[in-house]
UniProtKB/TrEMBL annotation, chains A, B:
Domain of life: Bacteria
Stretches assigned to the HTH tetR-type domain: 10-68
Protein name: TetR family transcriptional regulator
Molecular functions per Gene Ontology: DNA-binding transcription factor activity; transcription cis-regulatory region binding
DNA sequence: CGCCAAAGCGGACACGTGTCCGCTTCAACG
DNA sequence: CGTTGAAGCGGACACGTGTCCGCTTTGGCG
């Protein structure tokens, strides 16, 4: 899109991301001012490159998100739509479990994109999966990606010690609600 | 439980709640320091009476919550369990729509109670409804109140302009997932 | 080259939450 | 009543987020 930036700016941006990745990987508390310090830039610089905390996190996790998104068509090629959707959501859960920040960032990213009348990459992946299911008649026709994103949002509120018992379990319940009545 | 407090303390507590109700009713931004100022107390006082923002809000909305909780047995007396649950959740949605803060406070309250190995009043109401459904064989036996609380948490993240289209719709989807397969 | 406008920078600042601690006030008891 | 110790108070403080603005750097252009 618009990439003719100044060289030093691009540099800073990269250094910020690097610092952010380092902090995210080690500490569980992600403090923006610390990231700025580590990157050797002022807060202002950090905030111009990434207007909100979420923009930064979204970029940090971008690779993971891309990976996840790329999985959707692959799953659809190998399985029926509902199975593909199930597997995909399981994978989402797995990401959310390991990298606690992933899902929060994704969700925030979606909100950001919402105003732009888009659901973002994650939403697009879900739309693909749902469309396939709808076409096959195995998914309720009145469910869209935004619905699912809202529902799986519980992942951000799950306590650590509930993960094993509830994360997948709730996905199953959601899927039951999303399937066409057999 | 433990009510032999000092008179002036009880007074302050009441004044804080009064101020909080006033702020909640008018402004949509709820600033604790403003509430403290309006109540004519220091921040320290406010925070000792209500350790966190959520404790305060929970108390502000306590009456609404009690009302909602009291509804559950009434609904169960008049309808089959799944219908009762449906109506109850619809009522929850209605509360959440009007008083935006209600549900966030409730959810936070639940989290607080979680550590005390309790689900709080809302959780208890849901447990009653779910138990009835389970006994009647119309609700999946592996769903508990905590599951539902997590799922309906989407209400806190719903944008204002999505309410009409999504709030009830998602409740229906959840209910489909929670019902026993017929 | 050297100029200079725009792009970028950094850190001070404003604001909200929640904590801490020395002073004040209550109320129980002699 | 006066004493007294604990309950309660208030506001200063620490900390994180996000904004703002005067100074610096870059790099295109003459």
């Amino acid at each position: 899109m618009n990439r003719p930036r100044r060289a030093d700016a691009a540099d800073n941006r990269e250094r910020i991301l690097e610092a952010a990745r380092a902090v995210v990987a080690t500490a569980d508390e992600v403090r923006l001012n610390e990231i700025a310090k580590r990157a050797g830039v002022g807060q202002g610089t950090l905030y111009r490159h990434f207007p909100t905390r979420e923009h930064l996190l979204a970029e940090v996790y971008r690779q993971d998100v891309d990976e996840l998104v790329a999985t959707a068509p692959r799953l659809l090629a190998e399985h029926d739509p509902v199975t593909a959707l199930t597997r995909w959501l399981d994978r989402l859960v797995e990401y959310a479990r390991i990298k606690h920040g992933v899902f929060a960032a994704v969700e925030a990213g979606v909100r950001k994109d919402l105003s732009a009348h888009s659901l973002g990459p994650i939403g697009d992946a879900l739309t693909t999966l749902l469309d396939a299911g709808r076409a096959a008649g195995t998914v309720r026709p009145d469910v869209d990606a935004r619905d699912l994103i809202l529902l799986v949002g519980y992942l951000t509120r799950l306590e650590q010690d509930e993960w094993d018992t509830r994360a997948r379990h709730l996905i199953r319940i959601i899927l039951e609600g999303v399937r066409s009545r057999g």
